[in-house]
Amino acid sequence: MQENDQGGFQPRDIAVALSLLTRLPLRLPDAAYARGAAAAWAYPLAGLVLGLISGLAGWAVAGIGAGLAGIVAIAVTVILSGAMHEDGLADVADGFWGGWDRDRRLEIMKDSSIGSYGTMALILGFAARWWALTTLFTAGHGLTAAVAVGVLSRAGMPVLMAALPNARAGGLSRSVGRPAPRIAAVAVAQALALAVAMAGWSAIVAAVVSAGAVAGLALIARAKIGGQTGDVLGASQQISEITCLAVFVAVWG
């Protein structure tokens, strides 16, 4: 798959990113999607929107209880994103550890049913996120963390797309294409700038720890299936979100 770097950076890419990564009711012409991975620089901006909406929703009910705020923030994120990243995490857990060879792993990941590995991954993932958000809303930093994490957790996706080959001959990730390195670099730089503006220099620590976790996933994905898929990208967002939240709890909790 050739790198997609057509036409530089276009404002409409933000709408494309929101259309791909959320369930917001956006109506775009087919031509807008032709840029494919060239629009990946805007993925962190889609995370900014999701983080802001979910964080505000949690903040609005934080007076009733921090635990409720955490649940509401997660629920709003899941609804607005269509649970696509959670689905990716579950599929990766089932496929990577439920299959004995590459072909079987990819087959399991494509199956719409969920297995025990995927179920446990979702339970543990939701528990970790709820614990972290509850702690952060208790400390008065829930909204700030939600926005910063929304941005940072979607910066690794373009990097994985650029760094790893597509593991499938088809699928969403292959249809979008692979971004040029400068597209991925802009996504990361933009995410860092926005996160630091929101959360201060602790966002740099969160970004470094998150990058290590995503790099670990990339190594496992290359060993297990020979590259990345849309499920791997979704799993990377979840892993990044959890690690960033954990760092913010360590700093502010």
TrEMBL record:
Broad enzyme group: transferase
GO molecular function, one term: adenosylcobinamide-GDP ribazoletransferase activity
Presence of keyword DNA repair: no
Cofactor dependence: Mg(2+)
GO biological process per UniProt: cobalamin biosynthetic process
Subcellular localization, as worded in the UniProt entry: Cell membrane
Membrane topology: Multi-pass membrane protein
Keywords noted in UniProt: Cell membrane, Cobalamin biosynthesis, Magnesium, Membrane, Transferase, Transmembrane, Transmembrane helix
Swiss-Prot/TrEMBL catalytic activity: alpha-ribazole + adenosylcob(III)inamide-GDP = adenosylcob(III)alamin + GMP + H(+); alpha-ribazole 5'-phosphate + adenosylcob(III)inamide-GDP = adenosylcob(III)alamin 5'-phosphate + GMP + H(+)
GO cellular component terms, A-Z: plasma membrane
Taxonomic superkingdom: Bacteria
Pathway(s) annotated for this protein in UniProt: Cofactor biosynthesis; adenosylcobalamin biosynthesis; adenosylcobalamin from cob(II)yrinate a,c-diamide: step 7/7
UniProt xrefs under InterPro entries: CobS
Transmembrane segments: 32-53, 59-80, 203-221
Function, in words: Joins adenosylcobinamide-GDP and alpha-ribazole to generate adenosylcobalamin (Ado-cobalamin). Also synthesizes adenosylcobalamin 5'-phosphate from adenosylcobinamide-GDP and alpha-ribazole 5'-phosphate.
PANTHER family, sorted: ADENOSYLCOBINAMIDE-GDP RIBAZOLETRANSFERASE (PTHR34148)
Name the record gives this protein: Adenosylcobinamide-GDP ribazoletransferase
Organism annotation: Thalassovita litoralis
Source species taxonomy: Bacteria, Pseudomonadati, Pseudomonadota, Alphaproteobacteria, Rhodobacterales
